[in-house]
Amino acid sequence: MTKAEQTRLWAWRWKVLQRAGESSRSVARTCRHFGISRQAFYKWKRRFDEFGAARLYDRPRTPRRSPRATPAAVVSKILYLRQTYHFGPGKIADYLKRFHQVGVARSSVHRILGRHGLNRLPANQKHQPHRKRWQRYEKPLPGHRLQLDVKFLIERIPGTRKRLYQFTAIDDCTRIRVLKVYDACNQRMAIRFIDDVRRRLPFRIHVVQTDNGAEFQSQFHWHLEGLDIRHAYIKPRTPHLNGKVERSHRVDDQEFYQLLDRDGITDDIHLFNEKLREWEDYYNYHRPHGALGGQTPYERLVEKTRAGLSARS
Question: Which one, 14, 69, 259, 297, has the greatest CB density within 10 A?
Answer without folding.
Answer: 297
